[in-house]
Amino acid sequence: LSIATNRIETLEPCVLSRLPKSIKRLSIARNRLIAAAYVLEYHSLVNVEVINASLRNSPFPFLRTISGCKENLDILKNDTVYHPGNCQNDLQYPLWSNTSGRLISVSAPPSLRTLYVNSSKIFSTVVKFGILPNVVRQVYLQDNIIHSWIGPMHGVENITVLDMSKNFCANIGKDVGVNLTGLLTLKLAENALGPRFQFDLTGKIFRNLRRLQFLDISYNRIQALPFPFFKNLRSINHLYVSNNLLSDWCVAMGHMVNLTTLDLSKNRIGTISPRGMAELDLVLARGNLSINLRNNKLLCTCENLNFLEWMFVNRAHFKNIDLYTCSNAQKDYMNINFKQFSKSISQLKEKCKSYTLYYIIISVTGTCFLSVIFGVALYRNRWKIRYMRYTLFQRARDSHLLSSSSDDLFLYDAFVSYTSKDRDFVIKDMIQKLEQDNGVQLLIRDRSFIPGEFKCQQIVRSIQESRKTICVVSKRYLKSAWRDYELNMARVEGVEVRKSMRYVILILLPEVCNGGYPKKISDFLKRDCFIEYPDDPAGYEEFWQRLCSALQENAQD
Fold it and tell me: d(Cα 77, Cα 95) in Å, to the nearest integer?
C-alpha cells in the first residue's frame, strides 16, 4: 500500500488497525504527518515488513508527543495481546520496567524488518527507551535533528543496519549502543561527535559491537582518537574516517583481522607515528587492506622520511597513491611526485643523507685524541702543576716566600730528602761532616718540620728556602711515594725557578750503584748531578769534600 506524496497530516482512529493484514509494504513517505494516536496502531499491521515514513516536510516533537502514554505491561513477559473491537479502547500500552525505573516503550509491528524515517525533520533526543519484542533489522533515521543520543536502548538486539547520519548530534552516551549486539552496519557520518570520541579513553561507546562489519564516522570533526577506541571491533571490514581533523592515526588495529577498507582521506594527516605504523603492519600482514590517504597534508620532509619509506614499501595497499600530494607548509619540504614514488624517495634520501654519524665519529675521535694529548701533557707536568698549586697557596700566606734565587734570601744551605731507614746516616754522618765540620746549615725534616702543618706544603717550602736539595737515594728511597714527591718537587724547583738541574744533588748509596740506575733519576745522572757514596771507608773523606764543593758552587748547567 502506498499513500506517498500527498498532503496527509494524520490518520483517523482505527484506519491502520482495519487495513488488510496481508499488507507487507506500507509507504506513507512525502506527506505532512504529525504525531497522533494513529502511531500506536502501527503494531496492528502484523504482516508489514517494510514501513517508509521518510521525507516528511513538517517537523514534530516525536518523543515528546508519546512520552505521556500510560503503559502498564511488563515487556519482559512478552504477553501483549491485541483484542479486536473498538480499536482505541482495546489498544494496550505496555510498561517496560527494570531496576532503573520506568522507560518509554515503542510497539513495532511483529513482522517489521525495515523502517525508513529519514529526512523527516525529527527534532528529538535518544533517551532511555525500549522497543517491544520485534524482528526489526534495518532502521534508517538519517538526515534528522536527533541531536543527543543518551540511551541505553532496549529491544534493539536484532537490528543489523542503523543509519544515524546527518543528525547534528554532538552528544553520545557511552551506553547508547550497549544492546546493539547484532549490528553489522553503523553509519554515524556528518555529525559532531569528535569531542565525545576523543574522550572515550577506554573504548566504551563501541564495546559491544563485536559483529560490526561497516562503520562510517566521516564528517565528525574528529581531531584525535584514543588508542583503544576500536578495541572491540573484531569483525570490522570497512572503516570510514574521512573528512575529519585527524593529524595522526594511532589506534589499536591488531585485532581487525578482516579489515579491507580504511578511508582516512581529507584529514590533516602529515605522518603516522611509529606505533600507528606498527598497528597497520599487523593488518597488512594478514589481508588485502586498502588505505586511502588522499587529500591529506603529507609531510615530505627529512624528518618524515621513515613514514614515506613505509608508504613506499606498502604502496600497493594505498588507494590512488598516484594522486597523493605533499603539504608545502614546511620550509624544507620536497615536492614528491607520487607517480614516480621510487625516484622521489631516492632523491629525498640523498637530500636527507645524514652526516650525523660521521660528525659523531669525528667528534668522538677528536675528543679522545685531544683528551689523550691533554692527559699526557697533564701527566708529564703533574709535578709542575702540584708545585705551582702549593706555591700559589704559600704566596697567599707567606710574605717571605722566595721570588728570587739570590743566595742572600735562602735560610738554609741544603734541604735533605731521605727515608727513615737512612735517618742514622743523615743525623750521625751528615750533621757532623757538613754542619759541625764545615758550617753548612741543613734543613732536616725530623728536626725542622712543624707538627700539625700539611706535610706537602712544608716540603715545598723547605725546598724553596734552601739553596740546594740533597737526596739520599737508596732502593727504599726509590720506592717511597713521599720521597718521590720530594724528588719531583726539587726537580721542578730546579728547572722552573733555579733554571738548573744542578740545584739537586743525589747521593747514590752503594746498593743503588750496584743494581743499575733507575729511570726516574736518569735526567740527573745525565747532567752529572750525583755523587756516589763509597762502600770503602777509604773514600769517605773524598766523598765529603766533593759534597761540600757541590754545595758551595753556583747552580749552572
Answer: 11
Helices and strands, counts by H and E, the chain = 17, 22
Average pLDDT value for residue range 290-315: 92
Question: What DSSP line would sit under 312-335, residue for residue?
Answer: HHTGGGBTTGGG--B---STT---
Q: In whole angstroms, what is the distance from residue 367 CA to residue 430 CA?
A: 52
139-178 as b/e: b if 16+ CB within 10 A: bbbbbbebbbbbbbbbbbebbbbbbbbbbebbbbbbbbbb
Query: What residues contact 353, with CB distance under 8 A and at least 6 apart?
Result: none
Amino acid in position 437 = D
| Structural contact between residues 51 and 115, judged by C-beta atoms closer than 8 angstroms | yes
Q: Cell for 349?
A: 634520501
Q: Which residues contact 449 (CB under 8 A, 6 or more apart)?
A: 455, 458, 462
Q: Are 260 and 238 in contact (CB under 8 A)?
A: yes
Distances (CA, A) of 476 to 50, 422, 507, 522, 523: 114, 9, 14, 17, 20
pLDDT tens digits along 342-389? 888 888 888 887 677 788 899 999 999 999 998 888 877 777 777 777
State how far the Cα of 33 lies from the Cα of 329, in Å rounded to an integer. 53
Check residue 403 and give its pLDDT.
47
Report whether 146 contacts 124 (CB < 8 A).
yes
Q: Which three cell numbers stand for residue 439?
A: 758550617
Predicted structure pTM score? 0.62
Q: How many CA atoms lie within 13 A of 244 on its CB side?
A: 29
Strand order, beta sheet including 530-532 = 442-444, 412-417, 466-473, 504-508, 530-532
Give residue for cell 527494570: 98
Residue 255: enclosing H or E segment and its boundaries? none
**Gyration radius from the chain CA atoms:** 51
Torsion of CA 112, 118, 123, 128, to 10 degrees: 40
